[in-house]
Amino acid sequence: MHRRTLLRTGGVTAGAAFAGSLWQEAACAAAPGSVYAAPRRAASPYGPPGAPDANGVALPAGFTSRIVARTGRRVGGMLWHAAPDGGACFPDGDGWIYVSNSEIPLLGGASAIRFGPGGEIREAYRVLSGSNLNCAGGRTPWNTWLSCEEILRGRVFECDPYGARAAMPRLAMGRFKHEAAACDPDREVVYLTEDETDGCFYRFRPAEWGDLTAGRLEVLCATSDTGPVTWQRVPNPAAPLIPTRHQVGAAKHFSGGEGCHYDGGVCFFTTKGDNRVWAYDAENERLGIVYDADSPLTGVDNITGTPAGDLYVAEDGGNMEINLITPDRLVTPFLRIDGHPESEITGPAFSPDGTRLYFSSQRGARGDAAGTAGVTYEVTGPFRR
Question: Which ranges of the sequence are coiled-coil (predicted)?
Answer without folding.
Answer: none
